[in-house]
Amino acid sequence: MSHKPAHLLLVDDDPGLLKLLGLRLTSEGYSVVTAESGAEGLRVLNREKVDLVISDLRMDEMDGMQLFAEIQKVQPGMPVIILTAHGSIPDAVAATQQGVFSFLTKPVDKDALYQAIDDALEQSAPATDERWREAIVTRSPLMLRLLEQARLVAQSDVSVLINGQSGTGKEIFAQAIHNASPRNSKPFIAINCGALPEQLLESELFGHARGAFTGAVSNREGLFQAAEGGTLFLDEIGDMPAPLQVKLLRVLQERKVRPLGSNRDIDINVRIISATHRDLPKAMARGEFREDLYYRLNVVSLKIPALAERTEDIPLLANHLLRQAAERHKPFVRAFSTDAMKRLMTASWPGNVRQLVNVIEQCVALTSSPVISDALVEQALEGENTALPTFVEARNQFELNYLRKLLQITKGNVTHAARMAGRNRTEFYKLLSRHELDANDFKE
Asked: Whereabouts does the entry annotate DNA binding, in residue ranges?
């Protein structure tokens, strides 16, 4: 059974039963926090965002119904499921009349419990449609605040610049903004500005006329036209070549696009969301990124935190991703061992969510057990340390190595090195600046 990701609070004064129920629900993909008394449960609610409370009925000091009453004072509408070994039909009727979502008798049938949880979460969902952000699995206060900002900015047409390390999910965030916007019925189109050569990127963005270049055998509309009425997502905008930055600025200023090889401007109605892992103010200081373009793109700035900055999301994400991978490949895989989850929680995650996805895919591919072991997670993490870099990362590393070799050969002579590279001195100095190389360091 597939369940909606949710954060559950379990309250029971029996530590053994509390642990058992917590393990069962965690194995189903829920994020769980526990409390051994009603008072402790209220303290948890004060410090954490919880989607649903499951409480035992009979507890010392504060029973389940008293806890329910206190919860409704501080969080009206919070769904509560009551479990009891001493239930009766009158008790159940009385509880539901007071607003308890469900009243289940112990020992609880697991399918009945899962169904009650799913029904409670479905019926207690906010009136506003949250499907716009369903691909973003989080309970991190940092991310939830960011999502609220995204929801607000989605209602206008201002340009948004998303900052964040590689693998943090910038494109998914851009898609969420589009989904929450009035443009959501129109196309969302993404392009990586650092993954294509300059002429090909120009043709992709702006289109081309027949005969514009060798191989242009017919007219072709660009992505600005393809995204008409919708959103164009410019990923890795910091890697866009300087000549195209000028053309992009003109498009943003005039709201018109001119295909390559054409003398005709075409009106466009497109919202721009861009993203980068680079420090664009530093790139501007080095002359690599246009200041006027930066301010056009950066009307609203959103910074996505690294996975290491929101470790509370790791169990939720890991279980969600495990469920997806298992459904595709091995449905018998159900959960992580306790030690495996601890290892996931303490890993450094330089590749962020993208790396977590890869690790879990590897674990599912290699396991023959319903439970992912700590040893398997360790093996997958070690494999990630030698994994292939992204295309942009590989290209940047090649450029760095190539420039170092040129400067070594020419003993720091920039004119000679630029000539060997087929670049003019200005372009070559920009390359050196981008990679923070000083030709003087190579002079003898």
From this structure: 414-433
Q: What DSSP state is assigned to residue 238?
A: G
Q: Do 334 and 364 sit in the same domain of this protein?
A: yes
Q: Where a domain ends, among 79, 94, 122?
A: 122
**How far from 301 is each of 85, 148, 151, 193, CA to CA, in Å?**
53, 13, 13, 19
Q: Is 171 annotated as a binding residue?
A: yes
The response to whether 365 counts as a known ligand-binding position is no
Report whether 321 belongs to an annotated binding site: no
Annotated binding residue 234: yes
- Whether 202 is in a domain gets the answer yes
pLDDT digits (tens, 9 = 90+) for 174-209: 999 999 999 999 999 999 998 888 888 988 999 888
Locate tokens 């401007």: which residue?
Answer: 265
- Together in a domain, 356 and 369: yes
Higher per-residue confidence, 230 vs 130: 230
CA 34 from centre of chain: 27
Q: What is the mean pLDDT of residues 224-246?
A: 95
410 is in an annotated binding site: no
- Tens-place pLDDT, residues 340-373: 988 999 999 999 999 999 999 999 999 999 999 9
The response to whether 164 counts as a known ligand-binding position is yes
Q: Is 231 annotated as a binding residue?
A: yes
Does residue 170 have a known ligand-binding role?
Answer: yes
Task: Tell me which residue range forms the domain holding 59.
Answer: 5-122
* 336 is known to lie in a ligand binding site: no
109 has binding-site annotation: no
